Amino acid sequence: MKLVIVKYNAGNIQSVLYALERIGMEAVVTDDHRQIMSADKVIFPGVGEASTAMGYLQERGLDNIIKNLEQPVLGICLGMQLLCRYSEENDTTCMGVFDTTVKKFTGQLKIPQIGWNNVEEAKAPLFTGLAANSYCYFVHSYYAELCNQTAAVTEYGVRFSSALQKNNFYGVQFHPEKSAKAGEQILTNFLNL
Amino acid sequence: MDNQISMLTKRIIPCLDIKDGRTVKGVNFENIRDAGDPVELGAFYAAQGADELVFLDITATVEKRKTLSQLVNRISHHINIPFTVGGGIGSIEDVSVLLQNGADKISVNTAAYKKPALIEELAREFGSQCVVLAIDTKLESNGEWYVYLNGGRLKTETRCIDWAKQAVNAGAGEILLTSMNHDGTKQGFALDITGTLSRLLPIPVIASGGGGTGEHFVDVFTVACADAALAASIFHFKEIAIPDLKNYLFSKGIRVRI
């Protein structure tokens, strides 16, 4: 199986690579259009700021490549947010795969949310084999609103989409690469799709 | 606190002191083949249910940077939970190497105090989420908590609360607060200064110093509203096993990952 991690200017690729290694998978890190299109599966990670990341992807034509992929795609954290329609973070139009909006947390809770939170109402196939309400590791200030593509729900002042799925596109707000056994199970499930 | 509902858990964070690539504080485990190996010990804690790890490098030699980046690389290959690296970090280059080798966060202390712009630079370059400001603080006879530098050897005239606020404005993502009055005593955390910062600051506060019993952890989470609690020797010497601690906290109604 050819597994590709999309290379762009938004961090944490190394952590994802190591996590895949721990479950016995190798991945190619690339921004080459043909390599991405020909992959069996694509992981689209990300830590950073939405408008800068979208600008970078657009300059290289990667946004059009990614949103038209037909093989399984897993967006992680910012990667998932960039697959949504729009992000409040610097008023950014995103790729529009998931029909939902990314908003900033408001209220009295600390921002960013940092730590382990429940992943509820988690749907197959990404969450197959996980205990109900497993904990995953989150670091984020923006969240995707609930929508009919919500594949898991987490509560931090507001109930939000901690996972999304539409056809071959999957997205998780948390970091499976840092979420201990639960995260390894989720990555394994994605690789087994 | 507030009336918004959050299911976020309180974090338990073992801290490992590293010198020349080895853990230095004595460790007393039966299940560990080589307790001096930070990777094996860290993996053990991760398997026990630690929520994060902190590796504090106290190496003073010129070889430090190289050994530390190699160690961080090994840690990130083997450990499936987030970890922070601290100890003598003073520049964007230092941080860049550590993050490239897989560290999730770095902590800065003395260097950030001496050059507060460092926090801004790091936050801009790498994001606030990976910038932990470590503060060593001590309660003086005038009733004020002051900032200490150089591992607690150098007193400043800055109040802890003022430095913490300044650091948050500069872009620090979390505060790791160590009370020198409590560190090593196992008599409980510094509830007053921890509570003051936790309530005042819009970012998470990690309490450190003084945790000796399950009740101490209950207090630091409930009375002082800490977001996370860090400890070293009580874990290293098996005075409290992490699963037992978490079960105890759970039984007291505190949200933890079990």
Structure characterization notes:
The complex is a heterodimer of chains A (193) and B (258). Chain A is α/β, with parallel strands linked by helices and 193 residues long. Chain A has a single domain (3-191), classed as Rossmann fold. Helices cover 25% and strands 31% of the residues of chain A. In chain A, the strands form three sheets. Chain A has a seven-stranded mixed beta sheet. In chain A, strands 6-5-7-10 form a four-stranded mixed beta sheet, with helices on one face. In chain A, strands 8-9 form a two-stranded antiparallel ribbon. In chain A, strand 1, helix 1 (13-22) and strand 2 form a beta-alpha-beta unit. Chain A starts with a strand and ends with a helix. The model of chain B has no long low-confidence stretch (mean pLDDT 92). Chain B has 258 residues and is an alpha/beta fold. Chain B starts with 10 loop residues before the first strand and ends in a 7-residue tail after the last helix. Chain B is built from ten helices and eleven strands. Chain B has helices spanning 38-48, 64-78, 92-100, 110-114, 117-126, 160-170, 191-200, 214-222, 233-236, 242-251, and strands spanning 11-19, 22-23, 53-57, 83-86, 105-108, 131-139, 145-149, 154-159, 174-179, 205-208, 228-231. Chain B has an eight-stranded parallel barrel with strand order 1-3-4-5-6-9-10-11, surrounded by seven helices. Chain B has one domain: Aldolase class I (TIM Barrel, Alpha-Beta Barrel). The longest helix of chain B has 15 residues, at 64-78. Helix content of chain B is 36%, strand content 22%. The interface between A and B is large, with 39 and 36 residues.
Structural class given helices, strands, pairing of chain B? alpha/beta
Annotated CATH homologous superfamily of chain A? Class I glutamine amidotransferase (GATase) domain
- Radius of gyration based on Cα positions of chain B: 17 Å
* Widest beta sheet: strand line-up of chain A: 2-1-3-4-13-12-11
Q: SSE order of chain B in H/E notation?
A: EEHEHEHEHHEEEHEHEHEHH
The helix fraction of chain A, in percent, is 25-40%
Mean pLDDT of chain A: 95
CATH class of chain A: Alpha Beta
Number of separate helices of chain A: 6
Q: Report the strand count of chain A.
A: 13
Uncertain regions of chain A: pLDDT < 50 for 5+ in a row? none
Name the shape of chain B in a single word. Answer: globular
The CATH superfamily of chain B is identified as Aldolase class I
Quaternary state of the chains: heterodimer
Number of separate structural domains of chain A: 1
